[in-house]
Design goal:
Layout: H1 3-25, H2 45-75
Helix pairs in contact: 1-2
Length: 76
Amino acid sequence: MTMRDALQIAWPAFLAAAVLELLVFAHVDPADVHTLAGAPVELSRQAVYTLSFFGFWAVCAAACALCVWLQRRETT
């Protein structure tokens, strides 16, 4: 994987994560976020925003990487 490939994966994933962050937190208050067990998350709002963004970015990057991988398999 070249630096160009990494950037072609990371940049669109970053933009998609930013849009997803805006859409999600326009409707969800970070103070209302709970764990899977139902307990409230004991983090500041900024920490919830930050961790959520990096989680969204990781998922979007995985999707972009899969697209690059599938495209390369098709052309070879």
